[in-house]
Amino acid sequence: MASAVLVLGVAYLFGSVPAGVLVARTYGVDIRRVGSGNIGATNVLRALGPGPALVVAFFDVFKGGIAVLIARAVGIEGALLGGVALAAVLGHNYSVFLGFRGGKGVATSFGTLLVLDPVLALWTFPIGVSVMLLTRYVSAGSMTGGVAATVLALALGRPPWEVFTVALMAALIFFTHRENLRRLQAGTERRLGEKAEVRDA
Questions:
Q1: Which regions span the lipid bilayer (predicted)?
Q2: I need a surface site. Which of 23, 138, 173, 184 has the fewest CB within 10 A?
Q3: From the CA atom positions of the chain, what is the Rg in Å?
């Protein structure tokens, strides 16, 4: 029991590392005061351009993947491995280093899935990206990817613990995108390529 708590705690701490905040800080920008205030790669793209955004995306994917990879390397499998993946995503969404605030968990979820189930990840990725490019809404692509991953996990006959893990990650993506959903319904959601503006403190 104690070892399981330790592993989950370490995964949460990996996920909590706020790459978006750290990268933006090197440019003299507090990303939490720009655009949507989100610490993820999409807001970094709008504020600082593609270079910094790619760095943030890479590290957000990496921290999810490395948490699962380390857990698997020490012999963790099954439901506990799914718990490790979820802990990393929760760390990103509710970072201990940011007062339990954070990002939306899409890149980190994808990183965990790349290690948990590379085939499922590589089927899901083009679906989400295609929707994003067709609609020019990153949020629409992200949520579609979450749904696609869940449906594919069921269709491909993945074990119940994996289906449950993927479904929970998809639910978290929808929860963290609830404001985006409202803006999509209102027609006020930002499209891919729009610049971000500095917000008042």
A1: 47-71, 78-100, 106-125, 137-157, 163-181
A2: 184
A3: 16
